[in-house]
Every structure is written in C-alpha cells, then in structure tokens.
Amino acid sequence: MNVYAEIITIGDEILYGQITDTNSQWIGQELGKIGFRIIRKTSIGDSREEILTALKEASQRADVVLTTGGLGPTKDDITKHTFAEYFNEELTFREEVFTHIEALFKVKGREITELNRQQAYVPALGEVIHNAVGTAPGMWFPQGRKVYVSMPGVPHEMKKMMSDIIIPRLQQQFHTPFIYHKMVRTVGIPESILAQQLEHWEDALPEHIKLAYLPRLGQVRLRLTATGFDLEQLKMEVEEELYKIRPLLGEKLYAEEDIDLEVLVVEKLKQKGLKLATAESCTGGLLADQITNIPGVSAVYQGGIVSYSNEVKMSQLGVKEETLRTHGAVSEETAREMAEQVRERYGADFGISTTGIAGPDGGTEEKPVGTIWIACATPKETYTQLLQLTSDRILNINATATAVLKLLWKHIDTIG
After folding, report:
1. CA–CA distance, 225 with 234 (Å, rounded to integer)
2. C-beta atoms surrounding 325 within 10 Å
3. For residue 69, what are the β-bridge partners?
4. In this structure, which CATH number among 3.30.450.40, 3.30.830.10, 3.90.950.20, 3.20.20.70 belongs to the domain 261-414?
5. What family does this chain come from, according to its entry (predicted)?
6. Which CATH superfamily, name and number, covers 3-173?
7. Which of 32, 160, 206, 369 is deepest in the core (most CB within 10 A)?
8. CA atoms of 217 and 406, how far apart (whole Å)
9. CATH number of this structure's domain 178-255
10. pLDDT tens digit at each of 416 positions of the chain
C-alpha cells in the first residue's frame, strides 16, 4: 500500500530567489529511501491564507504533510500561529522547550528576550519535536491516520530533526514498501531517440517497475524504480531488466550507477597509471574545469590549454599555419593536430581536443553553428569525430565536453 507525502516550504525568501530551497530536495530523497511516495512539493510565502490553503489541499491527497520554515522568533514567522488556527487550537507554553532555549543561550553568553521566550509556545495539539541544535521546536500533529509535521527552515536543524526523530517515527507508524532505484547513464543519444529504441522493452516492464528519463546536457540518465515488500526480489528483477537493456543501449551505456563520466575517466586513468592533457577551443576551459573538480586528479591530469585564437593554436600548440589556412580552425585536421600536440608537449598518454562553432553566430553554409570536431590522440593512433549539434551555445559547449570524454573513455583500453 502506497503512503503519500507532500512537502511544503514556507518563506518569502524562497519565492524571491534570495535562497535556494534545498530542504524539499533532501526531504524527498530521504523519504524515498524508506518507501514514501512524494506526491507534491510546494513553495509558498509567509502568508496566513497561503499556509491554510496549502495545508487544506495537501490533506486531500497526502498521508504525511511536512512543512519547513516560518518558526523563527520574528513577526514574519507565522507558521506556528497558522497551524494553531488550522487545528483550532490555542498556543500553550512548553516548559521543556524554554529550558532548552535557556541552556542554548547560556552557552552562547546571551540573554533571552521576550521574542525568544515566545518560541516555547506550541499549539496544544502539537507534540514537540526536540531541536537539538536550535531554538525553534518542531511539531508533530496526529490527525487520525494522517500526520502533519512542522520543522525549522534552517537546513542543518531540519536534517538533524528528520534523521534523529521524524524518519524513525514515520517508519514506525507507516508500513511502507521498499522503493528501489537503479540509475543507468547514457551518452551521445538524444532522449527522443533513446525512448524509441526502448519503447518495446519499456512497454513490457512489470507493473511495479517504472522507467524515468532524466536528460541533461549531452547525456540521459535512466532511472528504474521498483516497488515492493521484498527488497532482494526487487533487486533481482531490476537486474533482469538491465540484462535486457544492455544490448539495446550498446556503447551509449557508460555506467550502471549515478556517476559522472569524467569521474569514471579519471578513475580508469588512475588504475592504469596513464596521463591526460587537454586542448580546448570551443569548450573554453570547461573540460579542464570538469576534470580538475575531481579529488585526486593530479595523479593523472598534466594540464591543458585554451587555444581560442588561431595565433594561440599555432604559437602554444604548434598547429601548422598551413593546416589552418587550408582546412580552417573547425576541421578534422586541426582537431587532430591539437590533440597530438598537447599530448606530446605535456608528456601525456592521451591528448583530447575540441574545436568548433558553438554559436549563436559564426556559422557558414558549409560549417553551420553546431559544427564541432573532437579528437583523442594516443601513442598509437588519433581518433576524431564530427559532431553536428544545435544552435544553442551553452548546450553545444556542454555536449562537446561530454562527447570528447566519451571518445577518450572508449579508447583508454587501447594502451596501458
């Protein structure tokens, strides 16, 4: 039996974009681990009417309603008062909450104000949820089979409260099925084409196993979600589906876990004791940034150069003037020389390169926007690939970085 949860984040600062709502993302992930289905996430301002409406609407579709925010000591923090109104309850002074606030202020050497004392008032129906690292208590409101939970909006306070108290209590009250997720990562195939290739397989999936497409720039993540009360059985069934999908994806499949391609590339280079260097034009340093964000990458990454102009391609990389004059900067020949030269000059086993027309302008009839050449040079051979991408500059840059990493990934095993 499914148990549905709804998350409501409260605060004008969220709506104005002054802070990013990370609370609902974290709560959703944690509830998913224990078998709850998130039916909706809502962000609302510090408005009595909006809070009352959100609670009423959530009660019609969710078994558990969780809110964060609006529990501070200032006048704009109205969540507690609105909960009292919603349940037609009075606020009552809780001595245990006030004692905790006193202890926190004593440690910090601060005096308690009347506003701080007001935080010890909680709706009579509400069961206090201890806030070990803050002054605003959480509240648990039982309503028959349904539960309403109010938590502080400060992320570290909310997370500790959820982890230590709320999640164990929800698990105890609700008998939820396991929800098992398995992520598959693909690269170099658009979502629409991928969906066509997988259509018959997807249609034949068991009722309790669902497929979701999660596209990002240059990649598509596939998430298989299985629901049931026997976790080991779910894992076995998902593995059976993976066995069927592998031949359909072929080399487009690069991982059966939620891991970025650059991380896999760096780990494989480490295992084989190989070095890498990069020469970038149209990606403008994105490759180097992605690679150097990985801890421990200094063991494999020699360095790179952003050779945006032809002059730098010649002076810093050694691309021949004749190559540029005859074939142009956006050409297989130039990409090849860039990769070979950076590999040799930086003493690396692999050199990878990007050169192209990212857009939105600069294209010609022969080489329209989105025309990109990439290359991967090894001690034995140099591999090149032509990409025909879109008119969107950011998409093209990101897709190119992904494509050249995929090209490298494909050929790492050719040496070492």
Report:
1. 9
2. 9
3. none
4. 3.90.950.20
5. Belongs to the CinA family.
6. MoaB/Mog-like domain (3.40.980.10)
7. 369
8. 13
9. 3.30.70.2860
10. 689 999 999 999 999 999 999 999 999 999 998 999 999 999 999 999 999 999 999 999 999 999 999 988 877 789 999 999 999 999 999 999 999 988 888 888 888 888 888 889 999 989 999 999 999 999 999 999 999 999 999 999 999 999 999 999 999 999 888 889 999 999 888 899 999 999 999 999 999 999 999 998 778 999 999 999 899 999 999 999 999 999 999 988 989 999 999 999 999 999 999 999 999 999 999 999 999 999 999 999 999 999 999 999 999 999 999 999 999 999 999 999 999 999 999 999 999 999 999 999 999 999 999 999 999 999 999 999 999 998 999 989 999 999 999 999 999 998 86
CA distance 290 to 277: 13
Domains 178-255 and 261-414 share a fold: no
Amino acid at position 253, single letter: L
Rounded to 5°, the CA angle 295-298-302 comes to 140
Helix axes 231-249, 191-203, angle to 10 degrees: 130
Domain ranges of the chain: 3-173, 178-255, 261-414
Residue of 297, 300, 290, 293 lying closest to 398 (CA atoms): 290
